[in-house]
Every structure is written in structure tokens, then in C-alpha cells.
Amino acid sequence: MMDLFYLETKFEASDDGSIEGMAWPYSQGDRVGDWIQKGAFTGTSLPLPMLFAHDQKEPVGAWEIADDREDGLHLKGRLLVDDLPRAREVRALVQAGAVRGISIGFRTKKASARPRGGRTITELELLEASLVTVPMHPGARVTSAKSAIRALTLAASLQRATAQLAKRN
């Protein structure tokens, strides 16, 4: 008697460069002790430039949605993979896990000093958000980069596992 294993998978796969992430979590300060309060991102102008490593010579896409939620600022955008070779390179780095962070560039409008160092920022002008290897805020990270490559890799892994199970029976 042979046991059959049915695995159903569902992928939302796209290589259009879609990307999203947490740009600034409100639950903790960054590496220098700065905290940004909810509401400080009000009035963010969109689309927002998406740079690589804060290099103004390295625009790779645009952030189209800035969602200020209870837990922090979430961004959604698109790497311009159809138009820019550098955007394709950055997408590959993100998909490989070599680039996982998001770091924001802003101009402080209102802030107060914190007792143990750093600032509490209550108003700012968000200028850009970069894809980086190590972000200033440890919780700022890419949360989704849709990829047909990932879907195909997972499908191949499932096929190998199924073949191994079939050999055992």
C-alpha cells in the first residue's frame, strides 16, 4: 500500500519589482537613541524616492504608499526592474537576503532631547527611504519582495521532497 501526499501551494509571484517593508517601528529607538512618534510622518509626499544605501546617485525605484499604522511606518513601492539595470541588481540582493533593511532620510522639524540621549522626533520631512544592508533602526526591514524565482525554488524543493517520499514507499 502506498501513502499519497498531496501538497497544494499558492503563490502570489511577480517579478515586477514590488517591495514592501517597515520603515520605522514605533516600539523602540534607533541605534543612536532617536525615537519618532506616530504622526510625525503626516504629510509625506508621494511618490517617495527609493534609493540604494542613501546614495542620491542610486535611485532604484519609488515608494508609492506610506501607511502610518499603530506599530510604525510601512512602505510599499516598486523597484524599476524593467527600466534600470541597477534596480535588477538590488532586487537580486534583496531576494538573496543580502539587503534586508530600510533606512529613512529625513529633515527634523520638531524634536526634544531624551533624558538618556537621542531625541524624540514629533515632526519631520521624509525625503527618501533607502534599501540598505544595515539600517539605523534595527527593526526597519523589508517584509516582502515578490518573486517568481522564490516560487520556482520552493516548487522544486517540494518536487524533490515528493520524489524522496515516493522512493520510501
Order of helices and strands: EEEEEHEEEH
Radius of gyration equals 20 Å
| Individual helix count | 2
- Briefly note the structural class of the backbone: alpha+beta
Low-confidence stretches: 1-14, 147-152
Please name the CATH topology: Serine Protease, Human Cytomegalovirus Protease, Chain A
Whole-number mean pLDDT:
83
Strand tally is 8
General form: globular
Q: Profile the largest sheet.
A: 8 strands, mixed
For the termini, the CA-CA separation is: 8 Å
CATH architecture: Alpha-Beta Barrel
The percent range for helix content is: 10-25%
CATH class annotation: Alpha Beta
Beta-strand residue fraction: 35-45%
Q: What is the domain total for the residues? A: 1
Key terms for this structure?
eight-stranded mixed sheet, 41% strand, 169 residues, alpha+beta, Serine Protease, Human Cytomegalovirus Protease, Chain A
Please provide a written account of the structure.
This protein is an alpha+beta fold and 169 residues long. It has a single domain (18-168), classed as Serine Protease, Human Cytomegalovirus Protease, Chain A. The protein has 2 helices and 8 strands; from the N terminus they run βββββαβββα. Strands 1, 2, 3, 4, 5, 6, 7 and 8 form an 8-stranded mixed beta sheet that branches. The termini are close together.
